[in-house]
Protein: DUF4160 domain-containing protein
Amino acid sequence: MGKIRINWNLQIEVDQKKDDCRREAPHCHITRNGSRVAQVWLNPVSIERGHSLDRNEIDHVIDAVTANCYELEREYEYNREHGADY
Structure:
C-alpha cells in the first residue's frame, strides 16, 4: 500500500518494522513534509494528544484514515508478521 496522500503536504504511513507493529495497537502515522506530526489509532479511529495539526487538518486526517481504515489495518497486521527486521 505504501503512503496515502491526504493533501499537498500530509500523508498517512504505517510502520514497516515487525517490532514496531508488535509493540502497540494498530495505528498509523501522519507526516508533514516527511516528518511525523501525529499518530492515529485505527480501532476506533482517534488521534493522539500532543499532535501539531490544526483543526482543519485534523478533519482531513480523520476522514482519510476512516476511509482507508480497513487497508491500513491489513497492512499493519501484515507488517506485524512479515515486516522488516532492520
About this structure: The chain has a mean pLDDT of 93. The two ends are 20 Å apart (CA to CA).
